[in-house]
Amino acid sequence: xxxxxxxxxxxxxxxxxxxxxxxxxxxxxxxxxxxxxxxxxxxxxxxxxxxxxxxxxxxxxxxxxxxxxxxxxxxxxxxxxxxxxxxxxxxxxxxxxxxxxxxxxxxxxxxxxxxxxxxxxxxxxxxxxxxxxxxxxxxxxxxxxxxxxxxxxxxxxxxxxxxxxxxxxxxxxxxxxxxxxxxxxxxxxxx
Length: 191
Fold this sequence. Notes:
It is a single chain. Helices cover 39% and strands 14% of the residues. The chain has 191 residues and is α/β, with parallel strands linked by helices. Strand 4 and strand 5 (160-162) form a beta hairpin. The longest helix has 16 residues, at 11-26.
């Protein structure tokens, strides 16, 4: 028995295009190139998984829209306040670890009270780490530990805190080139 595709059956194509247009409108995405549409399709494919995702591309191409799509179509979307962002390039290197992992009271001069970091705040949800290529090697090692072991330590603490966070990261840097230069951990890249 042979099955023939009906080239005139446009219902499926129209429905897919309509869904794609709805997603673009919801997330303020402008454009209709095959690469853009494929990027949205990939985001929708990985959304229901719990995989960490790295998004690369030049500045200004809209990388920040894809983590929102991934989170909105994930199983983590139901928790209130479950999507958090941090721009790793905009935070001074000395304070990034405190921003990501929190700190204990007295850990440094201005630490007047305990503070939860982005990983704890996003527990059960999604953490979008923009410009991950700008992180120090020290912070990269701690992010790797959080991804592998699902544990973090606040700055100034020797106690572990268990976290369940999906990380979606983005960068405009060529990560493979940064690995070759020794600026980015290869094990983090593969994680």
